[in-house]
Write a structure and sequence with these properties.
By secondary structure, this protein is mostly helical. Helix content is 66%, strand content 0%. The protein contains four helices and no strands. Helix 3 runs antiparallel to helix 4. The longest helix is centred in the middle third of the chain and has 34 residues. The chain is elongated and about 95 Å long.
Amino acid sequence: MEGANRKSGRPPMTDGKSSHVITLRLTDTELALLLEMESTLKLSRTDIIKARLFRDADKLILNTKDALMQLDRIGAEMNRVGNNINQLARHGNTLNLKGRLHPQLIIDFNGLFENYLGIQQRLDISLRKIIRAMGK
């Protein structure tokens, strides 16, 4: 019975084994912050400290719940802006049908609308970058 003396369980790790311990002293405030991050991010203290210590440009620690809530608020605000633009366009069309739409108003509206579209495009690019960073 060759297998009788063999231990069961996971084989010993040879590469990638964490064998060094570092002691860290924190103030009460720092410890409270670390504990809050631990519960909010659902990560261990070790993982949080390692991520902060060895953070690469493509790694990011954030509270995804808060980030998603903020992104949701931005989306809702963009919807409200879109609704306002639609109402202005509808009112402008009504005035145009009655012959009471001043040409300068159309020029002003088009300039503001172009500005809005530029801002919306930059916001869209920024949000895509944030979403990509959250996925890493």
